[in-house]
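Encode chain A's predicted structure.
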Amino acid sequence: VQLQASGGGLVQPGESLRLSCAASRVIFSINTMGWYRQAPGKQRELVALGNSDGSTNYADSVKGRFTISRDNAKKMMYLQMNSLKPEDTAVYYCNAEGLYYGDYNMLRKFDSWGQGTQVTVSS
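Encoded structure for chain A:
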C-alpha cells in the first residue's frame, strides 16, 4: 500500500492548511494512522495519532489547533491545521497501519509512509 501526502504549502502565521493522505489501494481496515513532521536539523516527531477505537492523541504543541481524521470510503486521511505558527514549519509525513486486500482477496498487513509534504509558516 502506497500513501500519497499532499496539501502542504506556504502560509502566514495564524492561517490554516489541510493535509491529505491517499491510499493506493482498497483498504480493509486502518488500525492506526498518524501524522509526523520533521523540521530541519531535528528528529521526526509525532504530531497526531488516530487509533482504531476512534481515540486520538496529539503532541502538546498542536493540541487544540490540529485535528486528525479519516474518510474510509475515500481511503483518505486528513490533518486539519489551524492557527499555524512558524514553529510548525516542517515536512509532514502520513503513516498508516492496517489490513488491505491482497492477491485473491486475502487480507494482508501493511505499515506505510507517505512521501512527505512541506509546510512553511512565515510572514
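The chain has no helices and eleven strands.
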